[in-house]
Every structure is written in C-alpha cells, then in structure tokens.
Amino acid sequence: MSIRDAAEARYPSYVERLGRLVNIDSGSRDLAGLREVATQVAAWCTDAGLSTHLVPVHDAAVTPLGDAVVARVRGAGTRRILLAGHLDTVFAAGTAAARPFRIDGTRATGPGVCDDKGGVLAGLCAVETLLDLGRTGFGELILVATPDEEIGSIGSRALLGRLAADADVALCLECARENGDLVSARKGVADVELVLRGRAAHAGIEPERGANAALAAARLTIALQELNGRWPSVTVNVGVLQAGQRANVVADQARLVVDLRADRVGAFDEALAAVEALSRRSFVDGVTVELAVHAPTPPWERSAATQRLVDLAGKVGAAIGVEVRDAATGGCADANLFAAAGVAVLDGLGPVGGNDHSSDEWLDLGSVPERVALLAGLVDAAAHDEM
C-alpha cells in the first residue's frame, strides 16, 4: 500500500475525531474543556500504540493552564523527530454549542477546526499511517499537544525546550496557508503592557492639582505608533488603550497593551528597546510608566536547515502528487521557540485551512489525505536524511 492510500484509509477516522474535538470548548484557560480534549487525544494516542503521558502545565504564578499530551513511539533508527501542535483555541465557552462542527461539501467549520485541532489530528493520523506501513526508520517519534499556545505558551515553554533539546527535527502542525503554502519563517512577537500612574483631582475645581494619565497615554500612543516605518517589516500596534473612571476626575491611571512584531532578531531587539525608551520619557509631569514584556518570542528566520526540510518536503510531494511551496508569515507560533533552540523546523504541515480566530474559520477536508501523506512521508524522509 502506498503512503497516500494508507492516509486515505485513515480519513473517516480523522473526520469523526475532528468533529468530537471541535465540539468541545477548549479556549485558553478553560481547564475543564482543555482537560477533556487532552484526555481524548491521549486516549487515541494510547490506542495507536504510543507511550502517552499528560503533563500538567502552569503559569509563573503556578496557576493551572491544562495538560499537555506527550506521546512517544520508538523506531529502528537514530533520529528523534518531534511533531508539535496545540489544543487551545481563542474562543469562549459556549462557542461550540453556538456553532458546532459542520461539514458543507469538503469544507469543515467550527471553533478550532483549523487552529489547531485539525493540525493535531493530522499529526496523529500521520503517525498511525507510518505505523500501519511499518515505516519506523526514526529513532523516536514524539507528538506533543500543548494547552496554552494561544496565550504565548507561557506555561509550556519549559516542556517544549526539553523536547527540543533532544530532537533532531521539529515539524509543526499549524495548518497550511489558504493557498497550501507551508511556513518556513515567522515574525517574532512581544506583548508590551504599559501602566501609567498619575494623580487624581477634581476636573472642574482644581484640575491643575492632577497629573493626567489619560493625556500621557494618548501622547505615548502617538509616539509608539510613530515607530512604524523605522525598521522594515517591524509593526508596533497599540491594541488596548484604557484610562480613567469618570469624566469629572483627572485620570490617575491608564493602561496600554502593545503588539510588537519583527521578522529579524536585530530589528526585534531594537524595536523593543525603543518602546522601553519611550516608557521612560515624561509625556505629562507627574505621570510615571511601568513596563512589562509578556511572553516575548523571537523571530524565526529562515535557515539552511529549514531549507533542507522544504527541499525534502518537495521531493515527498512530487512522489505523491502534492505541489509544495513555502512562505513567511507574520503570525507567531511554537515553531519560533524550536528555531530559537537551534532545531531544524518546518511549520504549516497540517491540512489547508483559513480564517483562523474568526467565526468563519474553516478546514479543507479534501486536503486531509494528501497533507497527512505529505507529513508522514516527510517524517520518513527526515528519519533517513543526514541534515
């Protein structure tokens, strides 16, 4: 049986599993839903013959974030290959009931159908396909699915770092772009929170006694937005601006949250330093600024190792009739962390999908067998390739 035929044989099971997962709410920090999907994925991994464990994940304050699934299978070779996806979505509890899994022709919809439940299940299906065919030339194949990627992998970074340290190759299961492209580079991102503290006063009687944090926040917002264009491909976006409580009070507090992205490590560091420098400027006398950088993730710059994986994917694709192209994207993912750890990495290896993080999110079910075959074939090729 060919690898594509074996993947095709797994397709009905894939669709049934996808419907079950999508119909479980598993937004980041939704512990009940995340534990339910983790338990289900772990059970499928165990049924497939993998040694499977649930690993509790916590944030810095030791607040539970859910469980990561880590499933392993030994092979006859020497190379360790890591397949990585995530279980959490961006959707609130109740979304699955409001718009459950649905199939219209070859298009599936529902919360997380593409990002990343469809990708995680493609990874498991690829492992099963290889085991069905007896293609176990890898030393060890590890599938990990984490519960906190959509909030910056704030709790699972240590786990991912340990897995990366032992891996020769990381193949990431975010879905392919809408046009089918794999992902070979990603921008880095940092969420920068700036809390401004001023001094309250009566806005009508003695406004001069106040220090207006709202005014300082407005001026700081303009200065931050003006950083755009200073470096090619760097974006700085003030996405949250909050200030004050009442119109007749000089605002004594304000808060900004900034999304900063860059595709080069040097530009990323320089832009972050520029934001920090602006936080030290006095925009209104008496207003101070406290800055915190949350879950900074460095850019994943395309490397020779990634190019080698793209080339291998191209050879596998040619053999099974799948055209392989790759592209850089502005979105950040766990692939950035693997690249920073020095592992050869390629992303976008799930099925084709689009409109992530929206009510129109979709997955092309027609792409599933060929993309599972491509992923399984790439694992097999990487297991034998001396990169």
From TrEMBL:
Keywords: Hydrolase, Metal-binding, Zinc. Its cofactor is Zn(2+). Transmembrane segments: none annotated. It holds the Pfam family Peptidase_M20. Residues 185-281 form the Peptidase M20 dimerisation domain. GO terms for molecular function: hydrolase activity; metal ion binding. The active site is at D88, E149. PANTHER family: ACETYLORNITHINE DEACETYLASE (PTHR43808), BLL0789 PROTEIN (PTHR43808:SF9). This is Peptidase M20.
